[in-house]
Amino acid sequence: MTKYAVSHAKQSQSQKQTITKRRKITLLPFCFIGLVLVLLSGVYYLGLLNEKATYGYKVSALENKLEELKGVNQKLELTKIELQQINRLEELALNLEMVKSDRVDYLSITDETVAVR
Predict the structure, then answer these.
(1) DSSP class of residue 83?
(2) What letter does residue 114 receive in the DSSP assignment?
(3) Nearest to 17, CA basis, from 112, 9, 84
(4) Gap between the Cα atoms of 59 and 52, Å rounded
(5) In angstroms, rounded to a whole number, what is the distance separating the alpha carbons of residues 22 and 14?
(6) What's the pTM value of the predicted model, to 2 decimals?
(7) What is the pLDDT of residues 13-58, one digit of tens each?
(8) 3-state secondary structure of 12
(9) Is residue 86 predicted with pLDDT exceeding 70?
(10) How many Å separate Cα 97 from the centre of its chain?
(11) What is the C-alpha to C-alpha distance for residues 18 and 87, in angstroms, rounded to an integer?
(12) Are 52 and 46 in contact (CB under 8 A)?
């Protein structure tokens, strides 16, 4: 090989190394941006999981409260039925010294005019 060919080969190798170094340098910001995006995606994913777990807890608590209120409602319905029984109402009326009426009189309304201008 000639001196020119050897020096040209060395130059092309050094140029390739320089280009490779430049590529490494220019790829570094993209790798950094990619890493940051992956980390941010992971944090976002964890946030979503936490939010879903929180909603699950709230739904569970509301379902428990619903079951409790259904039981209370059923007890109140039974109490209402007991309080509205005729026998109980008659006892209360006697305790208040009310008398049972034997005869009912109704008022009759006539269609006569009361006042005329």
Answers:
(1) H
(2) S
(3) 9
(4) 10
(5) 12
(6) 0.44
(7) 666 666 666 555 677 788 899 999 999 999 999 999 999 999 989 9
(8) helix
(9) yes
(10) 56
(11) 106
(12) no
Q: Which amino acid is at 102?
A: D
pLDDT recorded at residue 2: 57
CA distance 83 to 97: 19
- Which runs of consecutive H residues, i.e. helices, occur in the chain? 3-83, 86-95
pLDDT, greater one: 43 or 88: 43
CA angle 40, 44, 46 (to 5 degrees): 115
Q: Token match 């005869």: residue?
A: 103
The C-alpha atoms of residue 21 and residue 34 are separated, in whole angstroms, by 20
What token pair was written down for 53?
């777990």
82 within 8 A of 88, measured Cβ to Cβ: yes
**Cα–Cα distance measured from residue 45 to residue 39, given in angstroms and rounded to the nearest whole number:** 10
Given a cut of 80, is residue 59 above it in pLDDT?
yes
